[in-house]
Structure formats: structure tokens, C-alpha cells
Amino acid sequence: MKELAPIALTIGEPGGIGPELALKAWLRRKKDALPPFFLIAPLHLLKQAVAENTLDVPLKAISTPQEACSVFNDALPVLEITNPGIEVITGIASSKTASVVIESITKAVHLATTGEAAALVTNPIQKSALYEAGFNHPGHTEFLADLAGPGTLPVMMLANSKLRVVPLTIHIAIKDVPKQLTTDLIIERCRITHQSLQNGFGIAAPRLAIAGLNPHAGEDGAMGTEEKTVMEPAIEQLRREGINVIGPLPADTMFHEEARANYDVALCPYHDQALIPVKTLDFHGGVNVTLGLPFIRTSPDHGTALDIAGKGIARPDSLIAALRMAAEMATKSLATGA
Asked: Quick one: what percent of the chain has pLDDT higher than 90?
């Protein structure tokens, strides 16, 4: 089998904890058996992070991703963005660094698309600072989908060692969920999830479980009708396509240990219904995976944490989990030829 290329890691918000996490992840490369990765960033910003967090991390500038593998054991490889005029005040997000954030992401996508990087892992961004600089995408994932090309439909999945979840709707008000939760949307997201579990996770026959929208999954229409009118038709269509789907299930009884043994992923109508159980089960080990892209993308399941940046206390667990999951997905994709 072809040797796995190194993983591209973006800088994220330079004033946040992204640089610190990258340094700490490299320090744990042997303990956590991390795959070779390289950081796309201005070298002087990484030197600043090393000094501020008093971390003993040697840095090595590389000119191509291929160099990362030979460098990784002895130094953190940095594919440099040459922008010496950019200054960062740790703990403060600034629109002045937006060009670095965007270039890091754009370059990582290019390298993942061409195969020079096995996958990309993205550090968290501060959207408010990017908006101030003219960024016109709703968020990180939408920007990645735009870079991937027309017709790309990204699907968010949160995963840890105990649970995988997909929120069918994401950052919208609860009152808007019933309007957005359509039969077609459920079918579309289930198809993408099913294929991604096969190609990226090596699950030959994925088992999907769909949570009901209403208490007790509507209790046969007594507490809401969306389960019967919207969700059941979607499930019937998916079963006709040969996809193993169960539900709609009462959300209050589908996340305990015995129930989780019956499915590989839970799809939930709204954001918190999906994210509360996965974060409760393993808060620090959660990974954000974007399904439906033509490349592998994972991310830590947290934000920029400006309030603790530069204090040396940020935990790299989620980034480490994201790097490992990206490598595992890339390895399985190579094996399946996806």
C-alpha cells in the first residue's frame, strides 16, 4: 500500500490557543504515536508561541510537505507563510492576521486535494475577526466547501472513542428546526454519512440511528407529528436503498451504553441534541469531522479560547485526537481506494 503522506495542520486564529496546541501536540508525538504533521504558518509567530509558553520545541522550516516526514522526529516542521509584517498579541483576535489564517487554510486544502498531504486538520478560527476583514462565509466549514468546488455538501460529524453524532441542522434557532428538517435533507445527510463511514472509517455496513425531534419521538403523534410526516418517509426511502437505518428513536434513551452498541452513528435533528451527549461522554477527546468533502478534514472540538491563550494551560487532547483520526481515516481511505 502507498505510504501515507504527512498531515497538514493550519494555524487557526494566531492570537488563540492554536499555536500552543500545535507545539504541545508535537511534544506528545511519541507518547501518543502521532503521525507526521506539519504546520502552515509564519515561522516568527511560532517562535513567539514557543517563547510565551516556555516550551522546548525546535522548529524547522520546510519547503515541501514531503520534507516533514524526515524532519518530524527532531523538530516541528513548518511550511512557512512569509509574512514578516504580521504581529500577534496573544489573547486578542485581530482582523490584521486574517490574511495569514486564510492563506493557511487555502494552502492546506490545495495540498490535501493534490495528495501532497494525507488530510488536513484545522485549528479553530475566530470568525468575528475574519468578518471584520471581509470574510464572506458563514464559517470554517462553508469556506472549505467553497474551496472544494461546486456541488460540495459538507456534513458535520462529532466523534470520540464512545460515540459519533451528526446534527441534521446546525447553528439555527430551535424555533427554525422544524422548518429546516425536511425529508430530503435527512435522506441527503444520511447518504453522505453512510458513504463516509464506509470509506473513511472502514465500516462495511454502517448502522445509522435517527433521533426523534419531539419528546418520546412524538409518542405516535401525541407530542408532535414530524416523526411521522418528515422522518419516517426518509427512513423508508433509505432502507429501500439498502442503508441500515433505525428510528426515529426517543432521544432520552438512545445514548446510554447499551443503546449505543446498536448503531455506529446517531443523527439528531438539532445541534445540542447531538453535541450534549458526545461532549458529556468525552469532552476533551472530541473531534469535529467534516463529511462530504473530497478530502479528509478534522478539527479539535473547541474554539480559540482567547482567555487562556499564552498562559501555557491549554490542553492539546482534542487536537491530538483530531490528528490521529485524520491519519486513521486517510489510511482506511487508501485501503478502500476511496
From this structure: 84
Nearest-angstrom CA–CA distance, 271 and 256: 19
Q: What is the pLDDT of residue 36?
A: 97
Question: Cell for 127?
Answer: 470568525
Helices (H), 167-250: 177-180, 183-201, 226, 232-240
CA–CA separation, 326 vs 196, rounded Å? Answer: 13
CB atoms within 10 A of CB 265: 23
Q: Which CATH class is domain 162-281?
A: alpha beta
* Cell reading at 116: 501532497
The DSSP call for residue 33 is T
Question: What top-level class would CATH report for the domain 1-152+291-338?
Answer: alpha beta
Q: Is it true that 1-152+291-338 and 162-281 share their CATH fold?
A: yes
- E-only strand ranges, 98-241: 120-121, 155-159, 164-167, 207-211
pLDDT value for 234: 98
Q: What are 83-95's pLDDT values in tens digits?
A: 767 889 999 999 9
What DSSP state is assigned to residue 173?
Answer: -
